[in-house]
Hints:
The chain is of the alpha+beta class and 100 residues long. Helices cover 42% and strands 14% of the residues.
Amino acid sequence: MILREKGVGKVFITDSVRGGWLFCGEGWIHFVPETVEAVSANGAGDAFSAGIIFSEVLGFSEEDTLRIACAAASCALEHTGAVNTSISAEFILRKAGLTQ
């Protein structure tokens, strides 16, 4: 893959209702979150990116990072407007299936 030759270690791709993809050292990882009723797509991509950054900083596995990114995006989809101020890290981790 050309990106790997250029030193890119990970590539994240959003795929609408089909969830998200991650290409990394393990190959392709795919995750499809629970279906949500989308109210607005405004901010979903930013939330996905924020989930990646959050997970990378805290050292989550590649698979969990993708799950968290998708969970963050789904929270944005369920909310009117670009910023859902009622979410928290705990809420995202629970939505990603990583805590109860």
